[in-house]
Amino acid sequence: MMETRKPEWLKINLPGGTQCQTVKSVLQRYHLCTVCDEAHCPNKEECWSRKTATFMILGDSCTRNCRFCAVHSGITLPPDPKEPAGIAEAIALLDLDYAVITCVTRDDLPDGGAAHWAACIREVRKRNPACRIEILISDLQGNLKDLDTILDAAPDVIGHNLETVPRLYPQVRPQADYLRSLEILRHASEQGFISKTGIMLGLGENAPEVEALIRDSIEQCVSVFTIGQYLQPSRKHLPIREYVSPETFALYREYAMQAGMRYVLSGPLVRSSYQAKDAFQYLHAGNGKGNKK
């Protein structure tokens, strides 16, 4: 039976404090976007209080209109040539040793934003040589040459989210393609990178579908898998079909680990960049099975 009221396990503590204000100040100073704000992430206050943030490049307007996503679609601007240096400087000021960078989808750009991605990664590496870089990219419309442009800049982890089971793609992300997304993950894995993907629960999927998606991810040599609860950003977005219990999240984690996934983070408030550094450190120490960079 579908629940209509938000359960107790989705209540969020808001630590706030001076570290939160420090992150906010640095982002404003360099006119940077974060997915923390744009996607209404439930963990924003926790992460910002720990002086971490997931930077979002290529603007704040997406060329797609996924029905689960809070990032708005609309008029896009050319990539900001100052953005790579701005992100690199922000990471330095925040003294981050692990940075996560994501993006809006830019189907309007000939390369999907790949050259800008590469510039950002290289600038961050140049300014912060000890900082590990995790990226979360769009599907680049399946263009593997553009993907190689990004991979040539040598991020430490490359993520691309499957988001939901293939049956729900027409309703949830109609401009995406499940097999195309698998190909992006496969190619990154074959090039020796730690690859990562994530999904949301509560959109109407069933257990056999989730388990099949997990197996598909393992077949692409995905190393890190995240599972979180879909939270409806507004009444205009897809409704929540189910609030999935923490016990069910734990069962999916157990299934994925037993099936061969190297690292799984599964819980109602989990998002793809949540505790990303912990996953990398676990894998970098040689734990788990599967591919390594």
Describe the model.
Helix content is 37%, strand content 13%. The protein is of the alpha/beta class and 293 residues long. It folds into 2 domains: 15-155, no CATH class; 162-293, Transcription Regulator spoIIAA (2-Layer Sandwich). Helix 10 (246-259) links the parallel strand 7 and strand 8 (263-266). Helix 4 packs parallel to helix 5 and helix 9 (207-219) runs parallel beside helix 10 (246-259).
Entry summary:
The chain has about 290 residues and is an alpha/beta fold. It has helices at about 20-30, 35-40, 45-50, 85-95, 115-125, 145-150, 170, 180-190, 205-220, 245-260, 275-285; strands spanning about 35, 55, 100-105, 130-135, 155-160, 195-200, 225-230, 265.
The N- to C-terminal Cα distance equals 44 Å
The biggest sheet amounts to: 8 strands, mixed
Report the order of strands and helices: HEHHEHEHEHEHHEHEHEH
- Assembly level: single chain
Q: Tally the beta strands.
A: 8
**How many domains comprise the coordinates?**
2
Structural class: alpha/beta
**Beta fraction of the residues?**
5-15%
List the helices and strands and how they pair.
Blueprint: H1 18-29, E1 33-34, H2 35-38, H3 44-49, E2 54-57, H4 83-93, E3 98-103, H5 114-127, E4 132-136, H6 144-151, E5 157-159, H7 169-172, H8 178-190, E6 194-201, H9 207-219, E7 224-229, H10 246-259, E8 263-266, H11 276-284
Parallel strand pairs: 2-3, 3-4, 4-5, 5-6, 6-7, 7-8
Antiparallel strand pairs: 1-2
Helix pairs in contact: 4-5, 5-6, 9-10
